[in-house]
Fold:
Amino acid sequence: MGVPLYVEDFGNSIAYPITTGTLNSQTSFTPQTGSTITPGKILPGVTYSTPIGTGNFFNIDEGLYFTGAFLDNSSPSASGNSHSALTATFDNAVKGFGFDTSPLMGTSLTISIHFTSGTDYTNTFTIASSPLTNPVLTYLGFISSSTDILSATLYGNDSNRAFAIDNFTYSQSAAAVPEPSSIISGGLAILIGAVGVWSRRRRRSREE
Structure:
């Protein structure tokens, strides 16, 4: 489509816990376990954050239902998963974004999308069930009618993990999340797909 598409795959090495509760392109942090996070490891444009907790409340993890590393937690708040939610905040408003997730964060995912004006969009989606012997990722993508998405907050209903995501994709174009099917709700197009573990591991921006 001739527009930049950015895909954050969180690399191929573990780093946990991230006790600052914040991860972005400027992060400089040495975790208790895994590799040091240096500036530039995370692509610019998005800050990933979660409320400060205990234990492994914010991690770059690896394996399980994903190829390579992914972003998760493993100790939701005693007050419930909504208190351990992950928020992705864009440096500048974007047109669309999407990500992979899996049954690691439960059977459903609740997301609230925040815009430059107007009310938030909030909905709950089913996460495709999948045995370890045949892992399946659920892709969720969202496109707005304007370049007005400021941030998104999400959490699942699993008792051990409030979130587990990979391949966080974003762009300032309506082509930000190029997946096949779509559901229209108001001014927001929602793209949902269940696919096998993807072989694509795209770190840098490319032209779509």
Notes: Residues 23 and 48 are 5 Å apart (CA to CA). The first strand starts at residue 4 and ends at 8.
